[in-house]
Amino acid sequence: xxxxxxxxxxxxxxxxxxxxxxxxxxxxxxxxxxxxxxxxxxxxxxxxxxxxxxxxxxxxxxxxxxxxxxxxxxxx
Length: 76
Description:
The chain has a domain at 35-76. Helices cover 58% and strands 5% of the residues. The protein has helices at residues 11-23, 39-48, 55-75, and strands spanning 29-30, 33-34. The longest helix has 21 residues, at 55-75.
């Protein structure tokens, strides 16, 4: 059986993960529990960076990645 082909590198996906990494540095915690990222955290990032996508797409992607990350953190 032939192994699956590697997906093509996506500069946009890389940028989204870079953005999430930077934005998540502003994450707040309450009694040791991670809280969801806030829109104000994304706004602070968006004001400092040139964005290859619209703000609404950035918000949706960051919140989606954050949902996955919070679920992973809560499983521990």
